Amino acid sequence: MSGAGGLLRALVLHRRDYGNTSLLVELFAQGQGRFPAIAKGARRGRRPTSALLQPFQPLWVGVVGRGEVLTLTRVEAAARPFDLGGPALPCAFYLNELLMRLLGRHDPQAPIFAFYHAALGELAAGAHLDSVLRQFELRLLEGLGYAPSLDLVVDGGTPVAPDRHYLVEPGRGTRAAPAAAAGERVSGATLLALARGEALAPAQAREARALFRRLLQPHLGPKPLKSRELFRQWRGGRQE
Amino acid sequence: MAERTLLNQLIDALRCLPGVGPKSAQRIAFHLLERDRDGGSRLARVMGEAMARIRRCSRCRTLSEHEQCGLCANPNRDPSLLCVVEQPSEIVAIEHATDFRGYYFVLGGHLSPLDGIGPAELGLDLLEARLREGQVTELILAISPTVEGSVTAQYIAECAGAAAVHVTRIAHGVPLGGELEHVDGGTLALAFSGRRTL
Predict the structure, then answer these.
(1) Is B146 on the interface with A (CB under 8 A)?
(2) Does B158 contact A77 at a Cβ distance shorter than 8 Å?
(3) pLDDT in the model for residue A182
(4) Yes or no: is domain B77-169 CATH 3.40.50.2300?
(5) Which of residues 69-128 of A touch B (CB under 8 A)?
(6) What ipTM score was computed for the predicted complex, to two decimals?
(7) Looking at residue A237, what is its pLDDT?
(8) Domains of chain A in sequence order
């Protein structure tokens, strides 16, 4: 799905220095998914592109090559960078870390690109952080085929009722919760708000955060998410 | 596969230098062996000693063979100013180019969650302790204007806010001698938002 002159819409998920003058960037491109690319001479030369090749800057890129690592031939700004400040910034890094960890390379995932773009836009516009992150996590799991249906109960397919409690387990879907399983129960109201993409009340946001942590865990593996730690320390610092 | 002679080992070892590929490494090795053995021995001796003895300064985390580096040990500098930089080489650049006479703090990088670099890896606890000492009144952030740099700056600004220290950031904008037309959009936008009265 390339636009203007064979260029792709893309965002940088991560970058690191490569050699003395180049950058190795991990791009997430519309219709192409996530892939690594070398930007030769990006840090020096007559027109360095390192200012553009940064996370949260919408880009048009031209790439060539056949192997796993492609070579960037053109980089143009597609729009102004997302204006992320304060706690929205570590949240945006969290989105990048999720994509780096969960998305396979060269897996097109067109809807996820659109949701990622939209989520960055909402973070930049100052939307409620928890709601943006939960919606993105849900869309990401849906895109990867791991999302349970949050508004229907697995056995029987009855709709979730807002005033009851449920258990949602990775790979097993939503079931009515027995009274004993107090810790991991999620209220029907929270599940419905998530499924409909509605704003979450503070208690619901906490419930939803714990829920998605459980749902993402099997796919993330044992290595902890660094951006989550950073965000926790950030919040800790502010409460002092 | 080349024979594992001492000469080959030397050429191989020289390749750890930045910008030195196999060809240059070979040239350097032959030059030292045939034309400048004294220089080569001196290099080896100093390099060995430097690698063994140079550590991080306990106060500012720059590189020094002493417990405290020359700058931190100098009592004639202004203790109310503290400049935060990413790399020790930036101290040299600032010392050469500006009349800043406060103290420094070297992070050694920037926050980068995807590389596993968090506040602890940058010694931010040491910086917080330094701010709590109460001598510093202005914290100057000289951190690269990248996205990771700005997360780092914001994180430090929040810590400094908690310690009631005034935080400033060096200006970002059009380089001297640069032409506006060729400056990238992001830099130009920053230069505009940071304009000042003449």
Answers:
(1) yes
(2) no
(3) 61
(4) no
(5) 77, 80-81, 85-86, 89-90, 93-94, 96-97, 100
(6) 0.77
(7) 52
(8) 4-77 (2.40.50.140), 88-239 (1.20.1440.120)
